[in-house]
Amino acid sequence: MLDKLVSYDIKSGGIPFTVNIYRKKGEFVPVYEIVLSSIGKTTLIILEKIREELINKVHFGILDIADAKKTDVINEKFYDAALKLVKKYFPDITEENEKFLTSYLVKKSLGLGDIELLMSDTNLEEIAINSSADYVWVYHNKIGWLKTNIQLKDENLIAHYASSIGRKVNRQISVLEPLMDATLMTGDRVNATLMPVSSAGNTITIRKFAVKPWTITDFLKGGAMTISAAALVWECVHYEMSAIIAGGTASGKTSMLNVVSNFFPPNQRIISIEDTREIQLPKFSHWVPMLTRLPNNEGKGGVSMLDLLVNSLRMRPDRFMPEKCTLPSGIACLDHKYTGSGIQMVIQNGQGFDMSGISVGVNGTGCNAVDSTSGPTLTNGQQATYTVACTPSSGRFKGTVTIAYTNTQTSMTHSKLGEVIVKVP
To answer: 88 lies in which domain range?
Structure first.
């Protein structure tokens, strides 16, 4: 007995299909069913034969497949070859069905097969392949975890999909390196594992991100943030305050980071460091995204988050965005704001008397003085350079400087307050 919860139609690259979600007796969770009514069993057998023939006829190099810029060219070349074979084996079908069957072949051959259909459903947040013995699971944004009617035929196919994803982003997964984090061309995040690390079978977990990047307006409309909280965050970003975004799995950390990044001024240079590309900044941003890299089998060629952190300091960033920090890189990222050498300023004595016990303090937007420095006695007309230890966060600093000193003739203590505009060295 079926208790239908929801049903809707989707089109994935020219392939129309229906999604039925229902409760079934004997199942502990609702079932997510994909129905391709246009393709019968006999047609599927012929299409599989065509696909094998296509693989033998159309050849691509590894470099072509891995090059994102050549994706459209490869798809077009494969589509033309598939269309000729479809016309050969199905001479009497309509033009609409020709396109449908050709698109299906392309997705089966170059993409992730039936997983591509799941990727087209914007209601899904997660797609989980646990093994070939289990059905594919999905996380629906309104219903939760669902079991689909899609099952991959063997473990080799799962490993093949994982390798295909990795090659396109220069990542590797093998028996020696059975764990992989990668990103699809669509920006969705992928994690893959191979046996025996995952003892039940090879796994692929795809975290789907919103097609349209989140904005602060979306957060306000959805009730994820109040107006007063959004105003506070905006003001903190405007005054270049440091922030840590923390939370549990799938709690919206990356979404929040993307929302906050929309407040960055377009005239500031932004450096982001990630293990897997997830941050999405507006196109007008002065942004340099950087990714870590795992070492090879010989333990060479690895680039850690700490390495990229040190390198980023030489790229003159106005904003620094490390994403998903872990020890020891997490400590290094927290220390990043203390990497400045301080503010240097020249003080000239024009008071008409000698100054002793000079103390300098600085405070203002973009710099936070952590201590002051004292120097020797300055005679009238003499000058000296003082360095104030601080945490500079931009190339230019504007704020106030307080100078305290003692008149050597009267032994009275004075202080002067003034504005300072200096360049952070």
So the answer is: 2-207
